[in-house]
């Protein structure tokens, strides 16, 4: 009987170890699947409808993404995508989603304020950092000063040039405030294992009508 329990305990430990090993890769694949789906299939009508949907903007309630949340996002595939963002220099390409609830942030970059408009004021987005350097907002850690950030609502394409990158406290909520006379973008994700935040900001340098040529940068 002792031998049975010893074998059972060994198997349980093995299963737990395998779960830990494969947890992150599974989570990353699920996230990439739903992100790619929303980016590829997004239409102007969907953007218009999604802008009218209710959303949560309480960033303080955001928790680290789990496999369960990622799987739920894939199954529902209904995050309120209202645009796209790409940073070619680091390979970031994601949907922009209204709000910062679990489904939104398991899908792409979420808007931090209910009244945000692309190309105006401080367009602030937040996203999850994952150990996979290409998932969600993880690539932001590799952004350099001078890199270009592109966003679109499928009507216009806005280009921003990065002029600030630094690590900030989670309490530095002033970073998303509008600055008089300034058109800018703010991107925020976790740093130092979640203890701090990466802050990337850029200034608007160009706004163009969305067409096949200007949208090509989004893939």
From TrEMBL:
InterPro entries recorded for this chain? Sortase (IPR005754), Sortase_A (IPR042007), Sortase_dom-sf (IPR023365)
Q: Which CDD domains match?
A: Sortase_A (cd06165)
Alphabetically sorted, this entry's keywords are: Hydrolase, Protease, Thiol protease
Q: Which GO terms describe its biological process?
A: proteolysis
Q: Looking at the record's lineage, which domain of life comes first?
A: Bacteria
Query: Cross-referenced Gene3D superfamilies, in alphabetical order?
Result: Sortase
Q: Name one GO molecular function term.
A: cysteine-type peptidase activity
Matching Pfam families: Sortase
Active-site residues, Swiss-Prot/TrEMBL: 128 (proton donor/acceptor), 190 (acyl-thioester intermediate)
Q: What is this protein called?
A: Class A sortase
Please report the organism this UniProt entry assigns to the protein.
Answer: Bombilactobacillus bombi
């Amino acid at each position: 009987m002792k031998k049975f329990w010893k074998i059972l305990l060994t198997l349980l430990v093995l299963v737990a170890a395998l779960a830990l090993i494969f947890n992150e890769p599974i989570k990353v694949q699920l996230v990439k699947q739903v992100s790619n789906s929303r980016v590829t299939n997004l239409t102007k009508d969907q953007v218009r409808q999604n802008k009218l949907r209710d959303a949560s903007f309480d960033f303080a309630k955001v928790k680290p993404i789990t496999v369960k949340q990622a799987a739920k996002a894939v199954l529902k595939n209904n995050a309120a995508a209202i645009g796209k963002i790409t940073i070619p220099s680091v390979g970031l390409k994601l949907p922009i989603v209204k709000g910062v609830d679990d489904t939104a942030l398991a899908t792409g970059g979420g808007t931090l304020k209910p009244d945000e408009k692309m190309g105006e004021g401080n367009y602030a987005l937040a996203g999850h950092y994952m150990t996979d350097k290409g998932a969600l907002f993880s690539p932001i850690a590799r952004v350099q000063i001078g890199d270009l950030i592109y966003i679109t609502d499928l009507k216009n394409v806005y280009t921003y040039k990065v002029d600030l990158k630094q690590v900030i406290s989670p309490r530095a909520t002033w970073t998303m405030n509008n600055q008089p006379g300034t058109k800018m973008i703010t991107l925020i994700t976790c740093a130092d294992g979640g203890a701090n935040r990466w802050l990337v900001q850029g200034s608007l340098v160009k706004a163009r009508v969305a067409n096949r040529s200007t949208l090509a940068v989004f893939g």
